Amino acid sequence: MMDYAVIKKLIEEDIIDFDKMLLKNYKKIGLSEIEAFLLIELNNQKKAGHTFISPSKLVKKLTVSEEKLLQTLDGLIKKKYLIIRLVKQEKGKETEDFSLDNTLSKLIDVYKTRIKLEITKSEKTFDSKEEEIVDLLENQFQKQLKPLEIELIQKWINEDNYTIDDIKRAILDAIKANKSTISYVDGVLLKKSKTKKKHDKQKYDPEKSEALKAFFDSWEKN
After folding, report:
1. By C-alpha distance, which of 173, 191, 182 is closest to 149?
2. pTM reported for the whole predicted model
3. CATH number, domain at 83?
4. How many folded domains does the chain comprise?
């Protein structure tokens, strides 16, 4: 999955819409509707450069009673969706600031889980392994694969004998590293294959092979 700091920056620059992310997933991260709308308003205030939470302004925006608003704010703070802190300015003066970073982290986790399920538990049916991997890569990388890339996928399956699970894990690694390229997936597969071969080679010890030991014992007796 794309690095948290990158996603936060994209939200700050309005490339990713925080409001849509939250409205689509607020129930999945354990929020009520009023909590979601309050966090959206706080995010808008943050974008406008306002770091001090003003209940009187929020009441007008959300059309709820001040008592209900304060209860909602208190609940968000207790559940750590909203973090309020004091920040030291120049000359030692302190000002209030707030953070929605924990809310963003929870939203990112929702998308991580969704992507993982899409990759590992596809409900589609395919005529071949190659077709399944091509469909998966085109959906996750959001682009149509070139003929040479499809040939590489065929090589993974028919010559390198990678399993579907091997390839899916490599695709997940690529997504986590924010590397949406077939060459990166190929590199992950190659590295894991070399590691496995090295491990298997180290694990085999002819001195401990019972079959070989029996053979040499009988050979010496003869």
Report:
1. 182
2. 0.68
3. 1.10.10.10
4. 2
